[in-house]
Amino acid sequence: MAMAAAVGGESKRPMTREERKVIIASSVGTVFEWYDFYLAGALAANISAAFFSGVNPTAAFIFTLLGFAAGFAVRPFGALFFGSLGDLIGRKYTFLVTMTLMGIATFVVGILPTYAAIGMTAPVLFIVCRLLQGLALGGEYGGAATYVAEHAPQDRRGFYTSWIQTTATVGLFLSLIVVIGLRLSMSAEAFAAWGWRVPFLLSIILLGVSIWIRLQLQESPAFQRIKAEGKGSKAPLREAFGTWKNAKIAIFALLGGTAGQAVVWYTGQFYALFFLTQTLKLDATTSNIVIAVALAIGTPFFVLFGWLSDKIGRKPIILAGCLLAMITYFPLFGALTKAVNPQLELAIEKSPVTVIADPNECSFQFNPTGTASFTTSCDIAKSFLARNSVNYHNERAAPGTPAQIKIGDKVITSFDKRAAGAEGAAKEKAFNEQATAAIRAAGYPAVADKAKVNMPMVIAILTILVIYVTMVYGPIAAMLVELFPTRIRYSGMSLPYHIGNGWFGGFLPPTAFAIVAATGDIYSGLWYPIVVAGMTFVIGLLFVPETKDRNIYAED
């Protein structure tokens, strides 16, 4: 127990040089992993043009599903595989493997020949790279957070691990800055031809730097101790999730912690960007810039709330972040509409729209992969209005009646695409033209007028959303580490984290769009993060223990 006392019991002292090196090495490597992972989203249009331009529709459907799986669904499987590896052979070597796997897969994307050069091999290789990235990311976070926490003094664990918590946001910020910088430094033609590859190629340099830094580190002292004492787990997955004693901890960590954290994280960063570009019709470059500015302002709060969690506890800060999000999301996003696109706000108020449709024809348009086809007259009408940020009321029509859009005294009849057969494309074009002309005449703008954007207010609102992110995310690593014993810590914390962030968080944008299309209210998609954050607030309050004073070096 001497090592435990030396590492976990010391307090009220400055950070040592070795601890500083641990934090920097772990954080830098994890930043680069997130940077690699986010590039595919930031450059999706260029990737599609390069690797999917000639793919037949059936193959494109399969590849899109696989690409989606790599981004979200595969991450928990990476957490299981690399988590168990980390509990078996050690934290240091496992996250060296995940980092190397991520860096090489990202670099390969930058040198992959296009579909025009090698045909179907191009999208296949791209999907393989994305699957490897998803698996690697599933293993990286848990290893880095565990490694830092097991080096931290007991009363500064929240502060030390909060530096790891900055990495996802800093990685997103870094990817946005690199992409924006390249777009502004060359012509659109040059960027489309080869410039988009540069961010991927840079990853090999970042990988080299990260490996060099991490090779200077020693194995976690807590892991060294349990190995020396012969107390390591021989079957960490079975021990972590196959017994109710530990499995219930993972369930409460998910439902009472990471699920709410994830939806607040995704709402404050990804859904905010989606709302700016898709709902408020602000151009992509300006949207990326204001998000980047808000991230730059808000990022230090990760460390602030991590530090504060060492003083007052993890739970109060995380649950307060969930509660604030629940209470203020609707007014904040309403204020964002007013600041970005006041013309849209006026149209919503002055020009009510009604969809008259048979409810049996209306689907819940949940389409996370972008591959589903909604063909009924109701779905076509509602999808058009939701894409164009038009609020509408629903009115029941007689069974079998084609859906209609009523805008003032204008009535536009929708159509069933499958019933239209060969004429479907022509009817869709005519419907879109007629409906677009009607909503423009009613005052719904095609794009936000940049001259009317209240930029300081936009940045202020986005910064508040990012601060909520820092409240729920800053202390979560310390809490997860402290919930599980050392012998199964890597496995135990990784799975609830990646299910929460990969599934609850990753499904947020398509779920929100489906709710908007169903209800006809551009703000109704916010009910998804509000309900999930509310669930986490209640379950976390009742069932998740406060962990800040736990001695993580004491084994049961």
Map the helices and strands:
Layout: H1 2-9, H2 17-42, H3 44-51, H4 57-73, H5 75-89, H6 91-111, H7 115-118, H8 121-149, H9 157-185, H10 188-193, H11 198-214, H12 221-228, H13 236-241, H14 244-279, H15 284-298, H16 300-312, H17 314-340, H18 342-350, E1 353-357, H19 377-387, E2 393-396, E3 404-407, E4 410-413, H20 417-420, H21 424-441, H22 455-473, H23 476-483, H24 489-505, H25 508-519, H26 527-543
Parallel strand pairs: 1-2
Antiparallel strand pairs: 1-3, 3-4
Overall body shape? globular
Structural class given helices, strands, pairing? Answer: mainly alpha
Please name the CATH topology of the largest domain: Growth Hormone, Chain: A
Distance between the termini: 14 Å
- CATH superfamily of the largest domain, by name, is MFS general substrate transporter like domains
